UniProtKB/TrEMBL annotation:
Membrane topology summary: Multi-pass membrane protein
Name of protein: Ammonium transporter
Listed GO biological process terms: ammonium homeostasis
Gene Ontology CC annotations of this record: plasma membrane
Organism from which the protein derives: Anaeromicropila herbilytica
Homology family: Belongs to the ammonia transporter channel (TC 1.A.11.2) family.
Residues of the Ammonium transporter AmtB-like domain: 65-494
GO molecular function, one term: ammonium channel activity
Gene transcribed to yield this protein: amt-1
Pfam assignment, any one: Ammonium_transp
Primary localisation category: membrane
Length: 521
């Protein structure tokens, strides 16, 4: 028998044996490969049994929704790490990338220790996550004004807060907080001490973010501007243009002012040098990651899988982000002759930041307009902040998150159309903005912006000044010029690659003096 015939014979034998085996193990009796019989009823249930099953299905859907969207929001860390590292120079890549990972580790623990309790300890929890949230009933208030901080839930234990619903709320809110912790790292990149960012991350997660978060989302005084002072529904921020992004932008602004520009960024004549990012493709991929995760960031903020408005939220998010990136691309193309990849990315992020507050309260046309303005704003803000204020923000964090976070807060007060939000902050009726007849809602949003500036920037600036005096937030000039990977981290991001050096890697006589470096002289 030839070799080919032997192979054919073996194949036939295997086929026959497989058929026999399949017949032997075919479903018999109670087996159900289609799953058609997998039902939770027997026909003998009482009305109470049916209600219990439906109740579990309702809460089960909500828990699944909030946890999965929380998992995806955590992936923001990857997007931010890639965007910031790509926009910075290769000699600082390990330092920048690791900062973006480290701030999650620090932020999670800081929020666990005190942050969550301060923010949500008096909120009553989330209705869609069960009755256990009622344990979050401790609020410290100022008479006549309203709540300023929660007092239950420290280390997820105090005040009887060992509860599944409270743990779910903590998880979801923690990854939001960590976005704020991440934002300023890009603004002070390439010259900041790693240890200073560790300390800053504890400050943000344990103190700065939770207090403002309480005032907006935890039932605090900004949220009660409606019930106490008749200002619309009080200050409203659906998913974080104010609480997350504006706060991060104010931190970035304060950090940039205190730490000063990178060596060589500004010349003696006042003009600035471009510091090209070492890996633009990495930054673009990071932007795509952020865009994808933003759908969970915004739509997950319903905290309820049966709130069908989540489809409106996700679609508005897509529209605003897309038009923001498109407007930025065309603006740069028309003005400078090329469709700048970095500003295209920042335009998309600006649109996403701006729509985050109003995404649930506006229609698609308004989302389009909000994103359009955001894409233009970021293109105008980046050069203005750099050339007029002489601030060095390597990734544009102030413009993307600060400027457009504020725009998002105000846009809600303009474009909210009244079709959603009944009962928000205990005020009946939908949320309406100025263009739909409620000037008081816009007033509440303006007050929120004022608080963002006073609290977010003012307290951050004071913190950075004290930290700089006590600890020092800037690395030595020789370490900055050499790159922070070895001096700060002890490893190179690219050990097998010889990085090209240019004039921006040396201290030229044409460089403008930097007052923050005088301490090293």
């Amino acid at each position: 028998m030839g070799k080919t015939n032997k192979i054919v014979l073996v194949v036939l034998v295997i086929a026959v044996l497989s058929g026999v085996l399949a017949f032997a193990v075919s479903p018999k009796g109670g087996a159900d490969p289609t799953g058609a019989s997998y039902i939770a009823t027997t026909g003998k249930e009482t009305l109470t049994d049916v209600a219990t099953t439906a109740n579990k299905a309702y809460y089960g859907a909500n828990y699944t929704w909030i946890m999965i969207t929380g998992f995806m929001v955590f992936f923001f860390q990857c997007g931010f790490a890639m965007v910031e590292t790509g926009f910075c120079r290769g000699k600082n890549a390990a330092h920048t990338m690791t900062m973006n990972f480290m701030v999650f580790l620090v932020g999670a623990i800081g929020y666990f220790l005190t942050g969550f309790a301060i923010q949500f300890g008096g909120s009553g929890g989330a209705a869609g996550l069960g009755s256990g949230g009622a344990a979050l009933n401790g609020m410290l208030s100022i008479p006549g004004l309203g709540g300023i901080m929660g007092t239950k839930g420290f280390m997820l234990s105090s005040g009887g807060t060992y509860d599944a619903g409270i743990y779910a709320l903590f998880f979801f809110q923690m990854v939001f907080m960590d976005t704020t912790v991440t934002i300023p790292t890009g603004a002070v990149a390439e010259r900041v001490k790693y240890s200073a960012i560790v300390i800053t991350s504890f400050f943000i997660s344990m103190f700065l973010y939770p207090f403002f978060g309480n005032w907006m989302w935890g039932g605090g005084w900004l949220a009660t501007l409606g019930t106490k002072f008749g200002l619309g529904h009080g200050a409203v921020d659906f998913a974080g243009s104010a609480v997350v992004h504006s706060m991060g932008g104010m931190l970035a602004l304060a950090g940039c002012i205190v730490i000063g520009p990178r060596i060589g960024k500004f010349k003696k004549d006042g003009t600035s040098r471009a510091f090209p990012g070492h890996d633009i493709p990495m930054a673009i991929v990071g932007t795509i990651v952020l865009f994808f995760c933003w759908f969970s960031f915004n739509a997950g903020s319903t905290l309820n899988a049966s709130d069908f408005r989540l489809a409106v939220v996700a679609t508005n998010t897509m529209i605003a982000g897309a038009i923001g990136g498109l407007v930025a691309m065309f603006y740069m193309w028309i003005r400078y002759g090329k469709p700048d990849p970095s500003m295209t990315a920042n335009g998309a992020l600006a649109g996403l930041v701006a729509i985050t507050a109003p995404c649930a309260y506006v229609n698609a046309i308004s989302a389009f307009m909000i994103g359009l303005v955001a894409g233009l704003l970021v293109c105008l803000a980046v050069p203005f902040i750099e050339n007029k204020f002489k601030l060095d923000d390597p990734v544009g964090a102030i413009s993307v998150h600060g400027v457009n976070g504020i725009w998002g807060v105000l846009s809600l007060g303009l474009f909210a159309d009244g079709t959603y939000g009944d009962g928000v902050n205990l005020v009946s009726g939908g949320v309406k903005g100025l263009l739909y007849g409620d000037a008081s809602q816009f007033a509440a949003q303006v007050i929120a912006v004022a608080v963002i500036i006073v609290w977010g920037f003012g307290v951050s600036y004071l913190f950075f000044k004290i930290l700089d005096k006590v600890w020092g937030i800037r690395v030595k000039p020789e370490d900055e010029l050499a790159g922070l990977d070895i001096p700060e981290m002890g490893v190179l991001a690219y050990p097998d690659v010889e990085l090209v050096k240019s004039e921006i890697d040396f201290n030229s006589a044409d460089n403008a003096p930097i007052k923050q470096l005088k301490r090293f002289e």
